[in-house]
Amino acid sequence: MLAAMGRPLTVAATDPEMARSIDSDVVPAAHASRTGVRPERLLSLDVLRGLTIAFMILVNNQPGQDVFAPLNHAQWNGFTPTDLVFPTFLFLVGVSLVLSTASRIHRGVPRGTLLLHMLRRAVVLILFGMVVNTFPFQHLGSVRFYGVLQRTGLCYLAAGALCVLWPGWRSKAAVAVACLLGYWALMRFVPVPGFGVPTHDVIINHTDGNLSAWLDRALFAPQHLYQRVRDPEGLLSTLPAIATTLLGVLTGQWLRTVQTPQRKAIGIAVAGTLLAAAGLFWNPWFPINKKLWTSSYVLFAGGLSLLLLALSIWLVDVLRIGRGGVSRADHPERPTVWAPLLVFGTNSIAAYMISELLPNGLELVRTGGGNLLRSYLAALQTALPAHGMAPLLFGLTFVLLTWLLVLPLYRQRIFLRV
Questions:
Q1: Alpha helices by DSSP H, 256-332
Q2: Which long-range contacts (CB under 8 A, 24 or more apart) does 275-278 make?
Q3: What residues contact residue 193 under an 8 Å CB cut-off, 6+ apart?
Q4: Which backbone phi and psi does 107 adopt, to 5 degrees?
Q5: SS3 assignment, position 213
């Protein structure tokens, strides 16, 4: 484990908790003390996390406009499979967070120590995000301060504090509802300077005249924002993103109950169906929009994330497809079918950072014909002129390269944590 706050790198070859940072400890320990037996590891979480990271790397490395529509974010209102990637990752952060926090509280770790550790992790994630934004050369006058890891750090800290201070599920549900309704009320009723009142003077999700974009412009000059006039990971929209993480926390609490894996998967599937339907119901009044992280988007994407988790649990933990032996915290199995996804799933932060730094690093490599990456893309476009094929293979190349760089960590059972 690589601890970013000065703790040494260690090989967790026999670590019963398979250390992960935001990747988490995934050993639910609700009843271990009473039975004396360590419960089965939820391998399904790592599998789904690995799939999410792989898809994230793919869609983040689709160059140009000639891209298959499902591999692009919705232009504004609406939804594509790509819009499910980040909320699913945050959702899994919440699931893993409650499992690891409960495990540490069960072992007697003081709550103050836990809070300090969470604060440290959040700060390190934000710093990692700044590394991604500034690598290899970025002038501070134009650096982007928002980002995926920055938002992840803030959501992790908010949800983690709730887990430590108020362990019950009701507080999480109440805060999630407050975040969604509060964000909707702000976006619906607060006048936006220069534009007016949403739904009266401008539409509620106006591209430039929404409160979230206005606040980002008030805080930062255009060169610091991803889209100049707004940022998809802006400050105000982090509020509903916290609700996304709390959906994961509530799911993690359900996973710690004594229900059978079958009943857990069914319950998660039912909740996912209801949430997705609620998001679609809210859509006409507060349209589903990933770039604004609207409340309807939280419900719809959260519902789909729940359904994916239910499917993963059913396949991996119930039917035990591709699993060749027991899977206890002190005796981890060696699954064959899921191993490619576990390479990413057990080291998600490392995989994400490598995938983000790798293209920028390769941009510096020069060839006889110029830039290496542009030459490679041009060759793909010549060989594969059909719509979307060249960008798809380009993105898959980065998935493979990242996987090959993370594979040695997985084989040596080295898991990076902050």
A1: 261-282, 295-312
A2: 275/247, 275/299, 275/300, 275/302, 275/303, 275/306, 276/300, 276/302, 276/303, 276/304, 276/307, 277/303, 278/303
A3: 214
A4: -85, 0
A5: helix
Convert the pLDDT of each residue in 25-53 to its tens digit.
333 333 433 333 344 558 999 999 999 99
For the chain, domain boundaries: 32-411
Query: 144-173 burial, b for 16+ CB within 10 Å, e for fewer?
Result: bbbbbbbbbbbbbbbbbbbbbeeeeeeebb
**pLDDT per residue over 112-140, tens digit each?**
999 999 999 999 999 999 999 898 777 78
Q: Residue 307's closest CA among 333, 332, 277?
A: 277
Residue appearing with tokens 């670590």: 15
Query: Quick check: bond before 284 cis, omega within 30?
Result: no
State the Cα–Cα distance between residues 387 and 178, nearest whole angstrom.
44
Structure confidence by residue, pLDDT tens digits, 70-81 = 999 999 999 999
Q: How far is CA 315 from CA 269, 323, 324, 401, in A?
A: 13, 10, 14, 28
Contacts of residue 219, defined as CB under 8 A and 6 or more positions apart, other chains included, come to 235
Q: Which two tokens stand for residue 11?
A: 């090989």
Determine which of 132-141, 264-273, 361-370, 373-382 has the lowest per-residue pLDDT on average: 361-370
The strand pairing partners of 202, in sequence order, are 198
Distance between start and end Cα atoms, the chain? 8
**DSSP letter assigned to residue 323:** -
Tell me the C-alpha distance between 399 and 3, whole Å. 25
* Residue tagged 């916290």 (tokens): 242
